[in-house]
Amino acid sequence: DEVDVENLIEYVLSKFKMEIENKQLKIIKNIDVKTFYSDPTLMEFLLSNLISNAIKYNKENGSIEISTKFEDDYLILSVKDTGIGIPEGETENIFKRFYRISDIKRQYPGSGLGLSIVKRIVDNLNGEIIVKSEKNKYTLFIIKLPIK
Ligand code: ATP
Ligand code: MG
């Protein structure tokens, strides 16, 4: 289906309206791609999980930058937050089922499943997920999906 990416981002943000307001987060959008041919349910799942994490692991008055663009033959979706970050040695572990970073898991609720499913979906779509982070500064997730 033709997915209206811009609309979908708005919809996902509206689901988390309360959480965003409670933390006084600033949302920055760089939406260069309006529509993309994909499965809307899967796309919603990917965005919901990345945005949910970007809210949960963010700081008060932090920001979330959501970007979409086409690059070569890929749709690039990225979500960057100004939160607690992910320690260098953990960036591979976070995609494992039920894995949660142990020194912070008591502070934040969650099951540790979100990213493992995200990774599976991205793999199934022949895409790629990349994470870049610096502890206590930022976390950036980039999803690359091939254009069919
Ligand atoms: P849920 O299943 O409800 O999403 P969760 O958020 O704990 O639970 P994942 O989304 O799979 O699970 O994330 C796994 C772990 O990776 C998290 O517990 C957290 O430690 C770390 N993590 C994920 N996203 C971020 C982020 N944006 N900033 C910092 N740490 C993160
Ligand atoms: Mg999560």
Sequence-ordered SSE layout with sheet pairings:
Elements: E1 2-4, H1 5-15, H2 17-22, E2 26-31, E3 35-37, H3 40-56, E4 63-71, E5 74-81, H4 114-124, E6 128-134, E7 138-146
Parallel strand pairs: 2-4
Antiparallel strand pairs: 1-3, 4-5, 5-7, 6-7
Helix pairs in contact: 1-3, 3-4
Bound molecules: adenosine-5'-triphosphate (ATP) and magnesium ion.
What does this protein look like?
The chain has helices spanning 5-15, 17-22, 40-56, 114-124; strands at residues 2-4, 26-31, 35-37, 63-71, 74-81, 128-134, 138-146. 28% of the residues are buried. It has four helices and seven strands, in the order βααββαββαββ. The strands form two sheets. The protein has a five-stranded mixed beta sheet, with helices on one face. It is α+β, with helices and mostly antiparallel strands. Bound molecules: adenosine-5'-triphosphate and magnesium ion. Magnesium ion (MG) is lined by residues 49, 52-53, 110, 114.
